[in-house]
Write a structure and sequence with these properties.
It holds the Pfam family Cnd1_N. By secondary structure, the chain is an all-alpha fold. It is 58% helix and 2% strand. The longest helix is centred in the middle third of the chain and has 27 residues.
Length: 254
């Protein structure tokens, strides 16, 4: 039987919030582990070779992220190198995470509507995996956005390969606006679900919702981001849903 990732959101957050590079990823793809001694080997080609099978698996079923277990560890390993990660690779990774989470939200909605209580509990860990990776990826995006990237946008299609035009480049800078907007739209989609039927304790639900709100507060710290009416409106929509539907205490992400 194919192994499934044993993901503990509280344990993962403990490492991540202390130091993202301390998140355990020892069982990730060997090619990435070999780059540890020489990060310069972390090329777009190498990352594509590692990412493409995961992209295909998630396109077939969002549970592909969790089977086999090394897939989520591989994505986490890539994010550990976000400071030197090629921008095109980070963009592709963000597409993968957001697309997978969006499809998973559709599946969860269908299961919730079927009104079978035992049919939704297995979604908890998968939602936490996607939420955790999305938080990390958006944090990496904000780090990259503060730099002066000058890479051309690749042509991509499908999950993890969403089409992006030359409009993604402005004055030699990668424009993350569209991907951030889609990320926030997906957050809203997920938080409109009846999460109390999946996260049976208030603590578990708060931990999950905070994966999204923590990213929003980080985005709103950027002067460049808040100048965008679209970004501001989407950010406030995420926070409003978190407050209204999930009792989020505005401004708190402990």
């Amino acid at each position: 039987m194919e192994d499934r990732a044993q993901f503990d959101i509280n344990e993962s957050l403990k490492y991540y919030l202390s130091d993202p590079t301390s998140v355990p990823t020892a069982d990730a793809e060997p090619e990435l582990l070999e780059c540890e001694a020489d990060p310069d080997q972390l090329s777009t080609t190498l990352i594509d070779n590692v990412l493409n099978p995961i992209v295909d698996a998630v396109a077939e079923n969002p549970e592909g992220l969790a089977r086999p277990s090394k897939r989520i560890l591989t994505l986490a390993r890539i994010l550990r190198h976000c400071s030197i990660l090629p921008i095109r690779s980070l963009s592709k990774l963000l597409d993968l995470i957001v697309s997978g989470l969006s499809v998973e939200a559709d599946i969860v909605h269908g299961d919730l509507e079927s009104d079978e209580p035992d049919g939704v509990q297995h979604h908890k860990h998968l939602l936490e995996m996607y939420g955790f990776l999305l938080q990390w990826a958006l944090s990496a995006v904000e780090v990259k956005a503060a730099e002066r990237p000058a890479e051309a946008a690749p042509a991509r299609r499908g999950v993890g390969k969403s089409g992006r035009s030359k409009a993604s480049m402005r004055d030699g800078h990668w424009d993350w606006t569209a991907q951030i907007q889609i990320s926030m739209e997906t957050m809203c989609k997920v938080m409109k679900l009846k999460l109390s039927r999946i996260f049976l304790t208030t603590s578990d639900r708060d931990t999950f919702v905070n994966l999204f709100t923590r990213s929003i507060y980080l985005i709103l710290e950027s002067e460049q981001r808040v100048k965008s009416m679209t970004i501001r409106m989407h950010a406030f929509k995420v926070l409003c849903i978190a407050v209204k539907h999930h009792g989020h205490a505005f401004g708190e992400c402990s």
